[in-house]
Amino acid sequence: MYLLAILFINTVFLIFATYLLPQAPLLIATTGGGLVILIFLLLRRDNKQRHHMIKCLEDGLLCFNDGDFSASLTEKAPKQYQHLFKLFNQTGDKLRVERQHLYHREMLLDKVLSSSPVLTILVDHRQHIVFANRAALESFKPYGLMPGQDWLKLLDKLPEEFQSALTARGEAIFTVSDENNQQQAWHVAMSSVRMHQAQHQLYLLRTITEELSKQEVATWKKVISVISHELNNSLAPISTMCHNGTLLANNLDEPRLDRVFNSISRRINHLNEFIKGYASLTKLKLPQKTSLDWSELIEHLNSLFPFKLSAPLPEKPIIADGAQLEQVLINILKNAYEADKSHKVELSIKEIANKKVKIEITDQGIGMSEEVLQNALLPFYSTKHSGTGLGLALCREIVEAHQGKMIFSNIEQGGLSVSVILPMG
User: Fold this and answer.
1) Boundaries of every domain in the chain
2) Fold of 290-423
3) Going by C-beta distance under 8 Å and a sequence separation of 6 or more, which residues neighbour residue 372?
4) Contact 295, 383 (CB under 8 A)
5) Per-residue model confidence as pLDDT tens digits over 265-296
């Protein structure tokens, strides 16, 4: 635009000079030479300016390419470049905001995966482990699981049940023994995920032992409630008729009838107590947790069932329902005394990992068979002639209400070890 204006003014001047001035040829030559020099300088300046603007855009785009979206261009540029620079800055702002949102989503996803109890393992198309969350690393720590490891080599180290489930497609449920020889139920789901133009395999594993245990307990409670209801409905009229029969026998002065009705009444009372015992399992109150001093608890237990304390007591108190925890330990100590005629019972309380405490009671009896170990915590199951199968089932309910678990294991030298694992808080 500036060049056109200069050319127009210079042309008008030359035409005017040609007609009016006698020295027109010399003036035209001088003016033409000056005009050429001026045009050259203006073109050079414009070219430098254009080169500078392109260089700015190139540097900004290189920053974008390197993942740096903080670069911006000044909008105090020549008018013809202002719109282009404004679009560049708007693009940088948008990319910066989107990357920030993406970073927050990645941080949230990483936090969720790290804290999730579900074992998450991602395997790429070359059968290399590219990701494993904290739960997976800890659960497979004995087998040396780590990112970058060969997935197939890891499978060879796993128990056969794990291998079968992890090599199958889709979903599967299987059981495997843990380090305490306790059966643990697992659910595994495998799906294909496409990432970076390659097919990956995503494995999700979670233990469902506690869920199955809760469902089992809920089923038993329902069965007990139904049985109790039906028995109570039948016992009430029988008890009334028995009482009326006793009065009638007294009026008739028939000793034999009196003995019969008294015998029926005793059995009815025994059955009522039996039903009340199982009703307590279905109506167990939620734990009323308070700070519990170990010394006081041990002193009280020792006065009922003397035992040897095989380890120093923890310094930190436990947060639990004192009455319920005492009921659990009394029941276990009572069983240990009945199993060990020498009464050489030992008790230890130790703090373990993950802010938990392990209460272990051992005896020198004959231990338990595999069948008893598998069914000891079930309601109605008892190896005692006069047992109701209520004691350990009630202990299990109390311990699980405290988010804990009970473990039974035979001792190689003879005897049984019963462990109660509870959170400290």
Assistant:
1) 2-106, 116-207, 212-282, 290-423
2) Heat Shock Protein 90 (3.30.565)
3) 383
4) no
5) 777 777 777 777 666 666 677 888 999 889 98
